[in-house]
């Protein structure tokens, strides 16, 4: 393994910052006169910085003292966990903190109850079954971590090391019910033993106390999303015949009443395709009462459009998005959407899509957020041969298992109806068998690492559901430690991601970012809106930087550009826009620039969905106002 010579040496970037959770410090009425006289004080700068103030985030169990010492008067006996403060001083194992960068400190907290909050980037575990990795481990020092990486080849052996000080839980963590943060404190770029490049990360662990269990009976939800344009009649009929055969097996098993079905048909816009009947339609809504018999009745009534649609691509994005958002998926512990189509997905730029700006990356993110796995059955008929390559690439992205290169895409050569029926039967049997295993709490084995068939990947998806089901039941939470070193990739399988890189945002911050981005998108969509391409790109980058920085963290007399330069020095990861340079932008063709704008618009709609979804937001303390609720968003979904 080849470590970089110095910390922060390779990575310039933007990214980040959340900011202050906006948490006000509950001071009561005991504010001392000494503190009232400190109103002109400024917070400390970060070590080695000229423009950026130092901040910390609190851990559970902290108290606010009037002076640095446990015998001092307690101002607040229960400082909320996850609160972000500015640092005004340090003395005798205590840190002096304030809610603003100016105006003086409010009191002292034991240093062991706070961690530095340099970057506001946090990491979170992905589902290790989906990623195909072992449990993630943590070490006390970077040197120990490096030595273990060099000395250990077997992924399973890392967990047995006496040097490991903390380990990811066996099951998946529900980070909504058991919220946690793993803020990045330090990092070093590195080449792993197989020459994959990644980062060694020093992180802290902040978890809510009293983990919450989510008790739920096992129930599987399966929604077929079927292309119902003129060419699809034989495949609809074949789907019905296969499910009809499997229905007997389901009804005669312990799964009877534990598997629900839904059915959605999709075509194109009725506005531009008069006479096609509908754009997207639920023929059977997914409910806990929608049985396999209901599905057979509904698909028997499903028919194809009577007139052809424009072009070859169809609005499969609209069909999937509808199935994801129109039904209540909460009762289900195993969630499958099965797409059947012979066409590639219409891109938002082609116009008149059901969810107009939604594109494949954001669709995949939406599905991942709700733990819904997408199985794509792509019928490669001769009529669509020009569309096959691009369609396959986009469907593989949509169905990729998070953290791995594996996906749930399968193609049917020549659109063979018999082969399609056989595949539907195989996949349905796999889903039924693994669902039975989850219900009975029988271990679902991980497939052979070299097996990347769709059937093997379905088993990985099912095992991921099993870890989520058990994690909810057991109330698994993030490991508890103060500081530790780990890597962002999987131990022993360095081509796979183990940690999802995220930014934490308050609701107010997300609203501001979405509002600014909407103004840019609207300008781009006006005729002549991008006359000055350079100025326009600068606007986009400024937005990304403003969205990811806390304006209060920058000294007032400093230019934003100076502060950003300092900020970029320490950040280990980049978002899409901040990874680009002006020269990158000007060398893009017109269509490529338009694609970038379309991706930004797709992200904008994502922010709006997150903003309006109460399940995405967490109150970090009892008194949090609505705008102070927080969420985390993957870095690849930032501008």
Summarize the structure.
By secondary structure, this protein is α+β, with helices and mostly antiparallel strands.
Rg of Cα set: 26 Å
Structural class: alpha+beta
Distance from N terminus to C terminus (CA atoms, Å) equals: 33 Å
Helix content: 25-40%
Oligomeric status: single chain
Largest sheet: 8 strands, antiparallel
Low-confidence stretches: 4-30, 557-561
Overall pLDDT score: 86
Residue fraction in strands: 15-25%
Total number of beta strands:
25
Question: How would you describe this protein?
Answer:
31% of the residues lie in helices and 21% in strands. It has 639 residues and is α+β, with helices and mostly antiparallel strands. The strands form six sheets. Strands 1, 9, 12, 13, 14, 21, 24 and 25 form an eight-stranded antiparallel beta sheet that branches. A six-stranded mixed beta sheet has the order 17-16-15-18-19-20, with helices on both faces. Helix 4 links the parallel strand 15 and strand 16. Helix 6 runs parallel beside helix 7 and helix 11 (507-525) packs antiparallel against helix 15. It is globular and about 80 Å long. 48% of the residues are buried. Mean pLDDT is 86; it is low at 4-30 and 557-561.
